[in-house]
Design goal:
- The structure is a single chain.
- Strand 2 (about 10) and strand 3 (about 15) form a beta hairpin.
- Helix content is about 40%, strand content about 20%.
- The protein is α/β, with parallel strands linked by helices and about 500 residues long.
- The strands form seven sheets. Strands 15-18-19-14-13-21-22 form a seven-stranded mixed sheet, with helices on both faces. A six-stranded mixed sheet has the order 10-9-8-11-12-24, sandwiched between helices. Strands 1-5-4 form a three-stranded mixed sheet, with no helix packed on it.
- It is built from 17 helices and 25 strands.
- It folds into two domains: about 5-250 and about 455-475, Aldehyde Dehydrogenase, Chain A, domain 1; about 255-435, Aldehyde Dehydrogenase, Chain A, domain 2 (3-Layer(aba) Sandwich).
- Helix 1 (about 40-60) packs parallel to helix 9.
- It binds nicotinamide-adenine-dinucleotide.
- GO terms for molecular function: aldehyde dehydrogenase (NAD+) activity.
- Pathway: Aromatic compound metabolism; naphthalene degradation.
Length: about 500
Amino acid sequence: MSGLPHISNWVDGTHALPAAERVEVINPATEAVIGTVDATSRATVDAIIQESLASFRRGRWSRAEASERYAVLSKAAALLRARIPEFVELETEQTGRPVREMRAQLARIPEWLEYFGSLARVHAGQVTPFKGPVVNTLTRQPLGVVAQITPWNHPLLIATKKIAAALAAGNVVVVKPSELAPLSVLRLGSLFQEAGLPDGTLQIVCGYGRDTGRFLCEHPALAKIDLTGGLATYRAIAPAAALNMIPITAELGGKAPVCLFPSLDVDHAVKAALFASFIASGQTCVTGSRLLVHQDIYDPFVARLESRVRALRVGDPTDVHTQIGSVISRASVDRCAAFVDRAVKEGGRLICGGKPTDVDGKGFFFQPTVIETHPGSDLSCNEVFGPVIALLKCSSEEHIVQVANDSAFALGASVWTNDFSQAHRVADKIEAGIVWINGHHLNDPSSPWGGFKESGMGKENGLEAFESYTKVKSTVINYGIPPTWFDDEIENARYG
Ligand code: NAD
């Protein structure tokens, strides 16, 4: 391990002394170890939270003017925009996602800092219609020290979404990136410092989820936990958070249906399916992992889909021509293979793919895979988080809606049709936090993002996310009601 760069936690405006235990970060496309980060102990987590609390109470950021928050977040956006190529390279290296995807995704991330900085600057309080000679103001205050637990699939995007909203609202943030891809988030510390964020306002703490993540989420001094991850992780952190009365925003998994109707040109329907299903090798929470295809276009659709999927260019993520990179780990390859096995045992028909693959004998790659199956199958019901897609033939519009909603998940869904009325009718009936019509994966800092059912609760993005990082304070200002209640024989004295 000697010679490998070790990037230690970012705490109080500097890289802390390295922890005794370390986590190796692996490039999943080459299997090379590309660096190490801290495996932070409980004692260190506790000390960081205490220091973060002191930082919040000092008020250097929590009581900063809205105009200052706006200025810092805008500057951070500009700094990040100037350094996108460097972040693209790092993100590709630690996730195995194709460079063309990372370029497109990262180019937009500064917008989250600009949006939430602007929101901080323009957000106004309220005055209620309180009865009588009273002015009641509602103002929003930051919550305190918030913990953010982020995943590996969009490491920089998801962390920035959460950090931007929380900082805009005046909180102190302790973020724990995924142990599988923590490196880009670790670079945000010095970037925010350069933008003028006071030291001790953004703390970046690394380690395994089962240890460092747990130590963080069990701390009673937190004011909020914002998790993006799996349902099992939510269930692991929820009991302690409930006892400590700490609210949780949970962005969890999905099984997004892609509803394809016969008014579509078949070629267009296939392009829609490819886009929905295979971005990030199927490793996004809104991956179009269930293709619900109307029977009237089914046969030509399947024929065309098969030939397009077989032609996808799987390979070295740093090659600009590569369309499908690696998955994140060997465990992920094994999980994809197990899903294929079970799907076939349950009577599924393998249309294409189905096997692990590699580049020059290395890397955690899995072939883009489509399996024709039925609605109750394991593949139709459970999240793969990889490029293994369920294909389902549906007999009618009603059937598509029924199958789409017959899921424990309800995060994203897309409806593809040229029939205007059908688009609205179906979108209205689909149970999902985000429904796209003739699109998929579309995302904007202003657009609330989050699921229903087992896909989570609360929202990222938009006013909803900003306000979820605040608490409402009601101040009641009396300018005409005398405190005469206990005077003798007073008529019409007001109590409430
Ligand atoms: P994960 O739940 O394994 O890990 C997410 C984070 O939680 C990591 O930082 C991990 O270290 C931490 N963690 C794990 N166990 C923990 C514990 N006991 N206590 C505290 N922290 C813990 O998920 P992942 O594999 O990184 O990401 C994949 C999952 O995330 C999928 O289910 C995917 O659908 C979901 N996801 C959801 C969204 C969304 O917006 N809804 C976006 C991306 C990913």
